[in-house]
Automatic annotation (TrEMBL):
Name of the protein described by the UniProt record: RRM domain-containing protein
The RRM domain, residue ranges: 16-114
This protein's record includes keyword Nucleotidyltransferase: no
Pfam families, alphabetized: RRM_1
Upper classification of the organism: Eukaryota, Viridiplantae, Streptophyta, Embryophyta, Tracheophyta
Keyword RNA-binding carried by entry: yes
Amino acid sequence: MGTFRSKEDDVSRISTSIFVTNFPDSFSAKDLFHSCKLYGHVVDSFIPTKRTKEGKRFGFVRFINVFNVERLVKNLCTIWVGRLKFHANVARFNRENLKGNGSGDKTEKTYNKTTIMVPIRLRIMWVLDLSCSLMGRVKELASLDNLKKALVNEGFDALKISYLGELWVLLKFETTMVKDLFRANVSVNSWFSALNQASADFAPDGRIAWVEVEGIPFK
């Protein structure tokens, strides 16, 4: 008999969980989610009531489609919340489904022999499949805002676009046939300097940051 593997197992296989600490007492799991999503695709965030030995609050953030874990951790360590700066590291824990509790609404997470209860509603059942996806690098930064509309005008209204970093985007199609038609479209190709088959090993060369400066005269 074959071994049954749930969608949760598939998500765990492709996800990366990060341990984060050094944030205010008023910080919520939602705040943690939105702070970290600037640097990756966050699918889960959780802050337990238990504290570290030093009395600090801590939490876990789960990412998918992480191409460079070391870079992700370094980026998270640049986040400031008030006067506090995040401390982040790769989490080391095992997650096991509770059986026989009758409620069916919690998951057991073990971290350094400490049991933490995580609501199931925070799970995202998302399985990475790049067979119907392309990675494209737009020619100009301004193209990122108009890309979806431009591609819809070319008849590709069912595709999903995700930002990968720098000028790169992930384009996910319903079928490989649509993907091939997209790649062969001359008008579509005019928006990209590169259009490649999507790969989980991809890592962008750089990162774009928006800096807003106030009080500088025009001249």
